[in-house]
Design goal:
The structure holds 2 protein chains of 2 kinds. By secondary structure, chain A is mainly beta. Chain A contains no helices and 11 strands. Helices cover 0% and strands 51% of the residues of chain A. In chain B, the strands form 2 sheets. In chain B, strands 2, 4, 5, 6, 9, 10 and 11 form a 7-stranded mixed beta sheet that branches. In chain B, strands 1-3-8-7 form a 4-stranded antiparallel beta sheet, with no helix packed on it. In chain B, 0% of the residues lie in helices and 50% in strands. The chains are: A mainly beta, B mainly beta.
Chain lengths: 107, 121
């Protein structure tokens, strides 16, 4: 099984900050990496797929990069609505695994 | 607008079978080359993929749950279902159904609101 490791687990930031979250896969997954945002009591929302493709309707301040085993999610200027938990998720040969999550808190 | 809605008992006794259904509205479950999945989230914890199904019936399961999981699809009722047998307290979680992205099922682009299932006697 492919394991996904996110860092940091918690991140404290202020509105306007540039925020970067890292996700590492235990083996190469090419660019089959997605990012989700989840707010308390809500279902996750797809932000990025195929490592760097922005889902329709998602603000352009969100961006993704990486390939192989290392990936990043960047929020260029953190907005009040962005305080949430973020998950990465890999896809490989009809198997899917999520990272443990990164909580973005108000500093 | 496509919507997914989970339904089923909110309380299941230990050793029994958890059964949930995801009803798809606003579109046909078999109209396009979509896969459909189940994901769960224990209270205060992260997301765990349980399994996925194509309307043709092809199924894929998380190896850690495979011995206890069955996912099926009923195209006539436009829904797909999850059965998880021999449940324990560790299976207490919010259970989500979701749709995979079109053609290449790499990510989940639409989700139900989730349903909380508690395993307790």
């Amino acid at each position: 099984d492919i394991q996904m490791t996110q860092s940091p687990s918690t991140l404290s930031a202020s509105v306007g900050d540039r925020v970067t979250i890292t996700c590492r896969a235990s083996q190469s997954i090419s660019t089959w990496l997605a990012w989700y945002q989840q707010k308390p009591g809500k279902a996750p929302k797809l932000l990025i797929y195929k490592a760097s493709s922005l889902e329709s309707g998602v603000p352009s301040r969100f961006s993704g990069s990486g390939s192989g085993t290392e990936f990043t999610l960047t929020i260029s200027s953190l907005q009040p609505d962005d305080f949430a938990t973020y998950y990465c998720q890999q896809y490989n040969n009809y198997s899917w695994t999520f990272g443990q999550g990164t909580k973005v808190e108000i500093k | 607008q496509l919507q997914l809605q989970e339904s089923g008992p909110g309380l299941v006794k230990p050793s029994e079978t958890l059964s949930l259904t995801c009803t798809v509205s606003g579109g046909s479950i078999s109209s396009s080359n979509y896969y459909w999945g189940w994901i769960r989230q224990p209270p205060g914890k992260g997301l765990e993929w349980i399994g996925s199904i194509h309307y043709s019936g092809n199924t894929y399961y998380n190896p850690s749950l495979k011995s206890r999981v069955t996912i099926s699809v009923d195209t006539s009722k436009n829904h797909f279902s999850l059965k998880l047998s021999s449940v324990t307290a560790a299976d207490t979680a919010v259970y989500y159904c979701a749709r995979h992205r079109f053609e290449v099922p790499d990510a989940f682009d639409m989700w139900g609101q989730g349903t909380m299932v508690t395993v307790s006697s």
